[in-house]
Amino acid sequence: MTDPFGFLRIPREAVPARPVEERLRDWREVHAGQALLPLVSRQADRCMDCGIPFCHTGCPLGNLIPEWNAYAAHGDWRTAYERLHATNNFPEVTGRLCPAPCEDACVLTINADPVTIKNVEQAIADEGLRLGCMTPRPPEKSSGRTVAVIGSGPAGLAAAQQLTRAGHRVTVHERADRIGGLLRYGIPEFKMEKVHLDRRIEQMRAEGTVFVTGADVGGATGAGADELRSTCDAVVVAIGAGERRELPVPGRSLHGIHQAMDYLTCANRVREGDYAASPMTAEGRHVVVVGGGDTGSDCLGTALRQGAESVLQLDINPEPGADRTDGEPWPVYPRTYRISHAHEEARGREGRDPRLFACATLRFEGDASGRVRALRLTAVEPVARSPVAGTEYVIPAGLVLLALGFSGPERSGGLREQLGLELDERGNFARDARFAAGAGRAPGVFVAGDAGRGQSLVVWAIAEGRAAAAAVDRYLTGSTCLPAPVAAHDRPMTALGRMRYGDF
Prior knowledge:
single chain, 504 residues, alpha/beta, five-stranded parallel beta sheet, 19 helices, 13 strands, globular
């Protein structure tokens, strides 16, 4: 166990990031090259080993956090790595990308600072890799059943790995030219270097998973979805929530206004060696990111590294407070004022927070060549988000990036029609509590991840992939030993508790 008095003796100390001026000169991760282990082991010793560990509830994967904290505290990295992988296929991903709702659910958070769970998770994953613990785990025998997984984001990859290890023959179909979905082209290199993704894909190949790229299932460059269903015993649809929200204001058609995901994809393709320079570079431009979420923050960090003249991020929501509100009590993940690494970088370079809160775009203004040159903004009311009279002002903009989120899976293409998928009231692919599409009206078809949940966190996507794999395994064999951490209609914990409508 951990030190029973560690949380009293040891203050919280997060792993320090590299200096801002150093980070902005390269694309390496913000913690690249840091000496983590002594600090992380000491921080893991702050874990109280609670009788009721609420961090399990905050994490949809149900990670065994007190267990691997104890092993990390004692430097037993191999055992910590094994316990970490007991519930999570890709901890090197979540340790870098997840916003750590587990930390906000830590019992220490009631009146103190939580354990640095995310830092511990990343350190265990990285140290386990260094020790050679990431070895393929091919199945002992084959079931003879075939499964097609459509989409290679975190949900699709998690489902594929679980089903392969259960003995099924799994093929992952990805319409892009490389495997990884948003992990490949949506996440900047400075948040997660793609070597971590590549290692996992090679592990999965060694276990027997087959990958097919350039396969737009139901579209022009892939197999017909109905044909795939007829030749496979089951199909898992994990295409994500790619239907992008628009900003229908005057001037939207001006040059220099792009969807955030297109911008991030171009930047990542430069890192992959596809381009010498991004065709949407921010170099020398006044950059405005419309949208206050993580994707907007990723655009911010990317623009800074490309040499933007200035950066601003617009958020229609009011500036959050430093503390929880009464409607977001412990252990709920609260909306509080947070600083991402990109915000820290912008503040370090320009001396201020790059965000403007409680504002909305009224229109874009262009120059004689038809390129955007400015945005006209207005302050908005906090609840109705309606413009406040007399608050209009103009800011310069040479590159505008729309990071307004997603409204469900893409509607275009033949996938939906060919598989008989229906939309639910939220615009996602309908499914029952066991991930079966259309409440069982499309036999053998399952929906996992953001395609059925709507845009969410990477940790939810992995949890859904694991749970959908259990549902598929049961469908194919009549029973399953695979874990199912969530049901399809589960939602993040609220003041009323986790909303659960079905279980396995």
